[in-house]
Request: fold
Amino acid sequence: MINLVQGWFRELAAVQEFFLRNQTDNLVAAAKAIASAFERGQKLLICGNGGSAADAQHMAAEFVNRFIIERPPLPALALTTDSSVLTAIGNDYSYNDVFAKQLKALGQSGDVLLAISTSGRSVNVLAAAKEAKSRGIYVIALAGGSGGPLAAEADLAIVVPSEITPHIQEAHLTAEHLICEMVDRILFLMPGS
Reply:
């Protein structure tokens, strides 16, 4: 078991080190895009499946409540939380439409969509990205592996180069927390920078 623990942490450290070397500029760009949308009175919409759905809800909570510093709530919405909406769309149309249809109802030009998919191939997340782009919503992809078609569809792609889903998710959570921290700094600790 000790070898399992040590191996897990070594693999994760290698993934995060590569991620740090290659995605820092994209993380900063994502934070700036989200902060800019908030400054303009726009919102952040977030979607994903499974663990990525949990990440969407977690990140929305960090913005609506607070991350670390005391500050006003920020308009972020996880498209993964309304079970009546999700099941109605899934039943009446298709599960592939559960996020895109919500974007049609709630998304506005100038908003930002954070589309999370560890594979970069989630059909419903990709449909959301396409719908967002058609509405003038800036799309940030948070993906793994090669980034898949989601990275190609996005305005900005942050990709964790791993095929191990848990390590991708662990790096995604770090990225999400860093984005929250940077947005807070941009808006409340370094205004005008």
The chain has a mean pLDDT of 95. Helices lie at 2-39, 51-64, 83-92, 100-106, 123-134, 148-153, 165-189. The chain has seven helices and five strands.
